[in-house]
Structure prediction request, 304 residues.
Amino acid sequence: MNKAARGSLLGIEHLDAKEILRLLTLARRMNPLKPRPLLRGKRVLLLFYEPSTRTRASFEIAAKSLGAMTTLVLSSGSSIEKGESLLDTGYTLRAVGADVMVIRHPHAGAPLLMATHLDIPVVNAGDGMHEHPTQALLDAYTILRHKKTLKGLQMAIVGDIYHSRVARSTIHLLSKFGARITLCGPPEFLPEVATTLAPGLHITRTVEEAVRGSDAIMVLRVQKERLAGTKLRLQEYISRYQMTMARLKLARRDAIVMHPGPIIRGLEITWEVADCPQSVIVEEVHNGVPVRMAILANALGKAS
Ligand code: CP
Prediction:
């Protein structure tokens, strides 16, 4: 087995703060409205084994804004349906000329497996319950558009944290910069070893405690089928954990409301909160493009 190709982005856990800041600084120099042919002639392969709107569209626009060609392969309608393995699919896509591969997969470790066998950089677009590093980077980028620093930032994360690769990557990232993170959700939705997961991490029983005095609130999507595996009924979840204007008022006046999407209005968040002036949910999506431009430029050695 080879080491992952230089430029691969497989997770946040093993990146240091300097590397994260370098990518965020590079993202600030990227402007999709002013395309630059930095990646002209390069082929970006988008391999998605799971549904996606934001990640897929923003990677495609990011690649094209840098002059690259893109090819999208979905598990449905491809030879994956005929039983082709992950690695054989990777070898095939490399053979047709992929220069970088962006992969989303339901199993943790799928991007790492691909990266250790292919001689091209691999970017993790979300793998199982493991990591979603590009989402964490665009979220850090978004926070830094509103707050001076991540150090000391008080972040509340509410919802299904246990199953969330976004939460995992975000916790890794923010804790590297000295943020204070509070997790809140039903016990079945909380990590079992949260206190050892990262320094500066706390769990509260109520949303009110989590949100009080926070600078940023990240609301996570709740899947109804996962809720069915808890002791809570839908209405109980809504009454205990839904982000409402009354709860938002407990945060700092300049607190921002985040959500990686897709949002389920009326379940984890009210319509009013989703659309209020403190909500940066649409801005997060918008910022996904320059951040993914930076990640692709970095993957292909064009970061300088
Ligand atoms: N946040 C996120 O990954 O959204 P998509 O599933 O739509 O890509």
